[in-house]
Amino acid sequence: MSSSKKLITCLSIILVVVLSCTQSVHSQLQVGFYMNSCTFAEFIVKDEVRKAFIQDEGVAAGLVRLHFHDCFVRTGGEGYYVPAGRRDGRTSLASEASTNLPPPTLDVDQLTQSFANKGFTQEEMVTLSGAHTIGRSHCTSFSNRLNNFNGTRSQDPSLDPMYAARLKEQCPQGSTDPNLVVPMNPSSPAVTDVGYYIDILANRGLFTSDQTLMRNPITANQVNQNARNPMLWRLKFAAAMLKMGQLGVLTGNAGEIRTNCRVINS
Ligand code: HEM
């Protein structure tokens, strides 16, 4: 993919993240929400993200993940219109992240339940997991699969041995370096494509929660379909991302607009 296409994909994602964690068909969120109050808001966001992306491609992955985490915890592709108008919550608890976010050790039934708790179908769960086609992971998130898997003193048998060997080089056993990271889709870590599904078909899903999709015939079939049909996956992904942005929306006078995004207004 050319760098300009990559950028457009990234900007689309960014707009979703920044503006969409926001609305619902039933809420007051709408496309063009800032048109009158701040005409250039979307342009400014786009431009700032473009600049950030030029400096660091990882920004795209960070924002997509932020969208997932923000929308999942406190439900307080190609270009597509994103409704805006969501306000910030007054509560932000680290403890809620650990109880609401699925850990990478879950199996397919547990993942299905976790997403169902937020109103998502199993297919939407498989679709959204495709976000792992970009970005990086810390070794600590999957090192249990490399050594002494389930007390066997060996690696996870569902992991491709050659891939496991490479991961062991990148994540040496016993290393205490918390900064060690690997790309989640090594062949194209900054491109939003169906590489995630292709990896899984080759037993190269990085997390247990990725590879487990092959353990259920229905989700395995969806992995197959997505791998073979990038356009279809993109459409489903865009729809599911918008749906995620509709979780627990605050609009009108609810919540607040933070002066500093990191903290609630005092
Ligand atoms: C299906 C359940 C999911 C699990 C168990 C899961 C787990 C994880 C884990 C463990 C990491 C690596 C964290 C680290 O070690 O640094 C990660 C990264 C990431 N996840 Fe997920 N995730 C899930 C679903 C999603 C969804 C639905 C999205 C977005 C739609 C998403 C987007 C991302 C992205 C973009 C990254 C890379 C972040 C970066 O490079 O900065 N994940 N995920």
Tell me the domain tally: 1
Q: Return the structural class.
A: mainly alpha
Order of helices and strands: HHHHHHEHEHHHH
Determine the mean pLDDT. Answer: 86
Question: Helix count?
Answer: 11
Bound molecule types? protoporphyrin IX containing FE
The percent range for strand residues is: under 5%
**What is the CATH topology descriptor?**
Peroxidase, domain 2
Q: What's the N-to-C terminus distance?
A: 45 Å
Shape: globular
Could you explain how this protein is built, in words?
This protein has 266 residues and is mainly α. It has one domain (3-135, 184-244): Peroxidase, domain 2 (Orthogonal Bundle), CATH 1.10.420.10. It has helices at residues 3-20, 41-55, 58-73, 94-100, 108-116, 122-129, 161-170, 195-201, 208-211, 217-228, 230-244; strands at 136-138, 181-183. Helix 1 (3-20) runs parallel beside helix 3. The protein starts with a helix and ends in a 22-residue tail after the last helix. 34% of the residues are buried. The structure holds protoporphyrin IX containing FE. Residues 58, 61-62, 64-65, 68, 102-104, 106, 111, 128-129, 131-132, 134-138, 141, 207, 209 line the site of protoporphyrin IX containing FE.
Question: Which helices and strands appear, and what pairs or packs with what?
Answer:
Elements: H1 3-20, H2 41-55, H3 58-73, H4 94-100, H5 108-116, H6 122-129, E1 136-138, H7 161-170, E2 181-183, H8 195-201, H9 208-211, H10 217-228, H11 230-244
Antiparallel strand pairs: 1-2
Helix pairs in contact: 1-2, 1-3, 6-10, 8-10
Residues 58, 61-62, 64-65, 68, 102-104, 106, 111, 128-129, 131-132, 134-138, 141, 207, 209 line the site of protoporphyrin IX containing FE.
